[in-house]
Amino acid sequence: MATNPVPASFLTRANALFRKNLTFQKRNIWSNVRLIVIPLYLCVLLVGIQALFNTQFNNSVDNRCGCKRIDKKNGDGKCERKSCGPEYSSPNQAFFCAFPNPPPLPPLLHIPSSVFDSNSCTRNTGSCHVTILVTGNNHTLGATISRNLLPTYSTVISSDDFLRNPAYNVLASSEILVVSIGTTSETGNTNYLDPGIHSNLSIFNIQARCTPNTTLSSFPFQQPLHEFHKEERCVQGLNLWRNNSMEVNNEIFEGYQKENQEESIKEIVAAYDLLDTNRNNFNVTIWYNSTYKFNIKDRRVKLVQVPRSVNLVSNAYLHFLQGPETKMLFEYVKEVPKLESRLRLDIASLIGPLFFTWVILLLFPVILTSLVYEKQQRLRIIMKMHGLGDGPYWMISYVYYLIISTLYIISLMIFGSAIELQFLAGLKFFLFNDYSFQFIFCFLYINLQISTAFLVSSAFSKVETASVVSYIHIFGSGLLGAFLFQFLLEDVSFPRRWIFVMELYPGFSLYRGLYEFSIYAYQKNVTGRDGMKWKDFTNSAMDEVFYIIIVEWFVALIATYYIDQGSLSVKDSFSFLRKHFKQSLYPRTSMQSSSVTVEMEKLDATQERAKVEKLMLEPSTSHAIVCDNLKKVYPRKDGNPPKMAVRGLSLAVASKECFGMLGPNGAGKTSFINTMTGLAKPTSGAAFVQGLDICKDMDKVYTSMGVCPQQDLLWETLTGREHLLFYGRLKNLKGSELNQVVEDSLKNVNLFNGGVADKPAGKYSGGMKRRLSVAISLIGSPKVVYMDEPSTGLDPASRMNLWTVIKRAKRHTAIILTTHSMEEAEFLCDRLGIFVDGRLQCIGNPKELKARYGGSYVFTMTTSSEHEQDVEMLVQDLSPNAKKIYHIAGTQKFEIPKVEVGISKVFEAVEKAKSSFTVFAWGLEDTTLEDVFIKVARGAQDFNVLS
């Protein structure tokens, strides 16, 4: 492997990550296809809903002008033409007919039908009452004007008088006000052919007094194509004075129906507050009822009822000033001409915000789960350990997701527009609104969505949890937007400031923008008004949505950076709160238990500490790793005391040296490596790698470091070659040199032949993954490499090959290796340190350790059971200090101090014993490294128990 000491630049590392992400995306091409198909599916579903609605409602015969078939007399019986118009239309169909010359229609006031449904109102005698309330500052003037509001007739009045001048009469209907004629039927959205004109219902004339002699005959209302006769009856009006407007308001508020002392029902038609009206000033406030309709119908009621009410009080005031002969005539109201139309209700635009909210938010779980996956599988940290800094990671990740999201949005707009062009009766959402406006809005929101995903990812550690929460966010945002937020948005009485507060939730700000687009598309389809354009930026409230999205975008980015730098994290915050909560519940008392720990170091460990202290005083480049009294303590958890994983470790590892760490499980080896690689921060002490402090300059340390973790951290869909290419680029390898190094690495770990290099890592066996992890840690010739049990799970041949690779790599690299294999440690390591209970018990090369801690031979002899005593006597003769360490079924093992016996003496004694009794087998062996390990570990554990 070639040596390349120059660290990779920012752009080089960014390029490596970007190319890796593109390769990863290529491997997941079908997932991307399924993701893109979802908006297409929803668009097609919307088109289907619109087509069904068109068939069942828009194109229904009840929602178009009526027609009469006329067959040509040619014997074939076929209908050759149709005549359409109001004369062939029902009241519902008349709305859609052409009216080139709309008729003039006289005006009415509204009388609710409840007045005439009561048993206390005798219609034959005409004793029904309706009420007009009057108040003002001048009681005398108010009483005069009140008397002038309604006319009085004492004789029979012909209908001709009403038709010649309807302004002299106060006409009313008992159900709903129309532009000129009253009816008990509901009005439609137009008055060209009102259904009340075609019904045989009564028209009421409000008079100051109705007597049995006051009778009215029916009179005709002339329509363009029909003449209808209406029966008109008299209804008595009561003009009642109230002291102030508060009394009027309260009486109206209490309810429209109220029984008076005469057991008749009093119904308020209108109310007037004359305020400071006098002969020189006419100032009046009018109450009128518009609660029986809404939307377009409500608007028409207001436009007609208000002028008629104003006309009544104006005539009364003129009567007060000039006498009864002076009147302001209100003869009729006439609509403008119109062409024939058809119902064009764009249901797809109305429900579009819900569907498109779901479509755009579908990107959120994709981004979030990808980020959490890298954190859960510790892929991000392994990339960081190999030199990928936070800056390149966040920049490329952001750009990467932004490109995917932008392509997704463009695909959505293309699909939506293509479907609209194909099915002209379908969606109008995209075609009717400005494309640039739609794109900028979606582009801003996907930026906010990516930033929010980065921010929220810090709160999750498992992909499954993040996925569930993100999909709840998707469907919850859409449904709450459609059934709560939109309802409040359309409620004019709901405070706008609370709408603004609700839009601070990103899902509602997205829904608000899509809602505005849908409203403009709907109005364009119905009225022909332009869709959403940039000129509507302020009037449509989109400016408010844009500002919210932009501000939240930057806030989310800043918060993400702050959390990622370790200044604040959700987990740490909860730990902090939990700690203080516990302290408030269980405050510390003055009586605390104390313990005294006696730490005794062996001579070799003490010499290593002195060596480190000297290096700290006189820095030298000869040692790649220097640890000075390094400690790592894990805080108390779940009621357990704090765990001291590393207890004041002092260690110096020279360049080109392989240092092996031995120790039982839980001794602290992995905690030490995690501290040195930045996964955990040291509690105290200091550590330096190539002269760089791991607490201050870890980002620089990563550029010259390689790691083979205990668990293989690989992307399942990337091949072995692609892994090595990515990590090679992080180590500033380029071009042909990169390809050559990758090829050599694959060959060294036996992953080159048979196409294994180009298979996804997810299909590798455990041993192949382990070999790939070792190759990744060594690529680029890093100055320092940490290997945590690198040969675990390998067969003997692969293990020996891997040992050769590691031994070759230590020619230019300092290696710290942990292992449970004594054979591996003896083959690879220049020095060994036995780690027990977080403390270095001994240190030296394998031969020194065996000589120091294994100063005895192990003598083994197997005989029959009756000669076991003879064997013991034989050993006692050889060495009085010999100790039996094993005994079973005639086989015995003894430890014999080397200083007390020679090998030749042992052979002589055995040959002599064979002449006395039968010896089945015997042996003499030197102390192994495994024996040393067991002896040191047991001794340290026994000491810890005693202390």
Automatic annotation (TrEMBL):
GO molecular function: ABC-type transporter activity; ATP binding; ATP hydrolysis activity; lipid transporter activity
GO-annotated cellular components: membrane
Localization in the cell: Membrane
CDD domains: ABC_subfamily_A
Residue ranges of domain ABC transporter in the record: 625-862
Keyword Nucleotide-binding listed: yes
Pfam families (UniProt xref): ABC2_membrane_3 (PF12698), ABC_tran (PF00005), ABCA12_C (PF24526)
Entries under SMART domains matching the protein: AAA (SM00382)
Keywords: ATP-binding, Membrane, Nucleotide-binding, Transmembrane, Transmembrane helix
Domain of life where this protein originates: Eukaryota
Coiled coil: none
Topology relative to the membrane: Multi-pass membrane protein
The family this protein is said to belong to: Belongs to the ABC transporter superfamily. ABCA family. CPR flippase (TC 3.A.1.211) subfamily.
Protein's UniProt name: ABC transporter domain-containing protein
Organism from which the protein derives: Brassica oleracea var. oleracea
